[in-house]
Amino acid sequence: MSFTAPIQLPGLTRDPLWYKRAVFYEVMVRCFVDSNGDGTGDLGGLASRLDYLQWLGVDCLWLPPFYMSPLRDGGYDISDFKRVLPEFGTIDEFRDLVRRAHERNMRIIMDFPLNHTSVDHEWFQQSRSDPEGPYGDFYVWSDTDEKYPNVRIIFVDTEDSNWAFDPVRRQFYFHRFFSHQPDLNFESPAVRDAIVDIVKFWLDMGVDGLRLDAIPYLYESEEGNGEGEPKTHDFIKELRETVDREYPGRILLAEANQWPREVAAFFGSEEEPECHMAFDFPVMPRIFYSLRSQTATELVRILSETTDIPGAGAWGVFLRNHDELTLEMVDEEYRQAMYGWYAYDPRMRSNIGIRRRLAPLLDNSRAELELAHALLFSLPGSPFLYYGDEIGMGDNIWLNDRDSSRTPMQWTPDRNAGFSTADPGKLYLPVVQSLVYHYSLVNVESQLAQSRSLLHWIRNVIHTRKAHPVFGLGDLKVLPTDHDSALAFVRSYAGTGTSTGLGDPPEQVLCVFSFSQNPIAFTITAPELAGAQLTDLFGGARFPTIDEQGRVTITLGTQTFFWLKVVLPQEPATTTTAIPVLPPAPVPVR
Ligand code: BGC
User: What is the pTM of this model?
Assistant: First the structure.
């Protein structure tokens, strides 16, 4: 399949805060397109679909690890940080991918699992066999397995201790994740230097940022729980200083599966910044909770909590990713409810979470898929899509671990879903062939051909979001309503440069959502918006004006939403809203 040529190749915009307005797309190299018929996706394949991603409205790709690895943890077990796994391609192909993405004003951030390596890494091999040698202290060794008793086990399904005995060195080594992933010893200056050297290696290649995998866990201590220890924050501050000084415009993104205040610490402060972005882990499960409980209460609670972050910081919001839908950030009662709703088959569970894709989680309900995406694209922070979710791809819970939702991208109804020309038995994982999500039904080509498909719907919402900077740059205030199933918030942005006519105008958008499985009417109270005119952001239709007391009654159909442009009485009246003009849809050609 190929796509019409992009309209222009302008190169990268210079905006240093680009990540605040960007739409991100997570794609595992292995899963997207196989360009050489060996059954595994590769960098060349990914490069061949940049037109598709540009058409969709993606501003930045997030590539999970494609380094040299024995692939015992999807590539998060690295055996050489400076080499590309040969089945994925070469360094030159990666450089070419970056160049071709930049030509389209698309950026690339890559995963950097700096907390640990694979046992196959040369550092570990040297460390275990030569304790006095240059790599002797590269890992966390101990004569007992009793140190750091406050540190929890993360992979509870597979590991019963954070220590493993090494028969060569005859000592225990510490591992946060799988026992084949020993933790690096950040107390060693040589480790810290080696990590900074790797950061520079990839940033020199033109990469626009790094996702700092498992960032809370770099240091451990006897007193603490090894999550966000002060020394971990000191290290990130130093790294940030280096990046800002030598690579301005590149970003660090924290993967810290923690409560808002703890995650917020990874942004640092205005004076001593750490990461530019951090994933918002607590908000995600609450979206799923709201959908099934038909109440917005939990979302209202988490969105009303104010977590101060530096002005240049941005949250990363997501519905799904390559890991299980983690339920670590919800209380036990809610967790059990979510297991009951979303993981009724034990095979759907993994660690403390659910290993399913978005569409099967939502039972392929178009209403719920739209509602979930409407939240994703209007909550504060930058949205991260997971490859295949834009077409509502299914999963395969009969595969091991998180491979259930890492199956090949479904491009066409043809052999191997157009992912690869290999013998189907040779694919790295089988394509989805379940009754509802079979690739002959769910694929890019057929959704391109249907103007009302999920793919076209998501693309339209992405472009609408991009036409309104308020979503990326504005504040959020939750508004009270008189209905438990309704969520209402207003996004407000003061604008920039309006005196010169350049830059963004100020803007306010009222976002309302209903989680009810029946139509509802509800009243919103917002005295600060008294007298405001409301118009639908998509079609421009006029809605009832907010009354003098700041009240307005809205009616929403089953599980649906509105994004309404707010024009206050003192602002110049507008009867129309900006509706983005989309370039024509690409025509699939075989
Ligand atoms: C990644 C997982 C991985 C783990 C250990 C996580 O944070 O997202 O996929 O298994 O790190 O590397």
Answer: 0.95
